[in-house]
Structures are given as C-alpha cells and as structure tokens.
Amino acid sequence: MRASARVASARAVVKRERDARSTRARAFVPPIVPNPRQGDDDANADAAPTLPNIERALAPHGWAIGAERGYDDTPHAFKIFKVRDGHHTLEQLQEALYVSDERGCRIRRETQSLFYMCCDGVRCRLNEGKKEIVVEMPCDLDSVGAYVAKAKVIEDIIKSSQKKRAS
Fold first, then answer.
1. For domain 75-166, is the CATH number 1.10.1060?
2. Pick from 87, 66, 86: nearest CA to 76
3. Using CA atoms, how far apart are residues 108 and 38, in angstroms rounded to an integer?
4. What is the model's pLDDT at position 133?
5. Which listed residue, of 20, 33, 38, 41, carries a Cα 20 to 30 Å from 159's Cα?
6. Average pLDDT, the chain
7. Which tens digit of pLDDT belongs to each residue from 19-30?
8. Which strands, in side-by-side order, build the sheet including 114-119?
9. Strands, DSSP E only, in 110-161?
C-alpha cells in the first residue's frame, strides 16, 4: 500500500465534532404543547367550552366563574342582580326558561325571605331582604356562544321585568 493511500484513509476515520447548536433538524416536529391562545378569542362562538374560555366570554357582561355560596363544588357561571320586585322577576325568568319536558320548574320558598327556582339548569335564588337575585348557570353547554346567548337572555328578561314594574 502506498503512503498516500494510508494518509487518505486515516483522514477519513477522523470525524469532526460538531457544536450542538449547529445541528440541523432533519424533520418537521410539531409543537407538543398547543398554542393556548388559539381559538380562545371572544368572537369565536364555537370555541371549546373550557372554564377560561367561558370566563373570558362572560366577563364583559359581569358574570363570574366559581361556586358562589353553593352546596356543590362544581364551578358555574353566576351573577348577582339587584331587583325592585324580585318575585315578579323570578316569575318572568320561570316563564322564559321553562322547558316542556322538565319537572320541578317551580318557585319554592326556602326561608321567610329566600326563594329558589331551577329551570333549564339555571338556578335562581331570590333574597327579598337584600332585593337581589343570584343566577347560576352550570358549565355543561356545548359551546361558548351558547353561554353568551343564555346570559343575554337572562339579562334581557331581568331588565324587561324591571321596566314593566317601574312604569
């Protein structure tokens, strides 16, 4: 074997070490964690009904997510409304939220000044002493748009019942 052949083969054996920063990716690797802001905007009514999405959509309307003095620990959307004639407002909510195949959509008296009603999954508690109604929606609807639509319906009913009684 010639000397030049030995030198050429010796060079081929020696590999240069590469810096870890200079290595190139050989294939596209999708991100493991999805973008947390993707599809969460309020304009997207079909966004997944997760608690952050629901809270973000209902916050401009004054609704909050939590367990407001409830007996269960499951989170739900709630809002406290000040009313003049709470019993009339509760009757209006009962008429609007009534579902034909639902049983038990009645106004019940809990104590001397507390009334309770549950229709279409929406729970309403009237405190006549404080003149306020606490409305709670469970977090089990199909889309964020459904929560916003139901919240607007409830707010419109309460506003219209207050206007009718004021005049």
1. no
2. 66
3. 44
4. 92
5. 41
6. 75
7. 666 666 566 555
8. 64-66, 76-82, 132-138, 122-127, 114-119, 108-109
9. 114-119, 122-127, 132-138
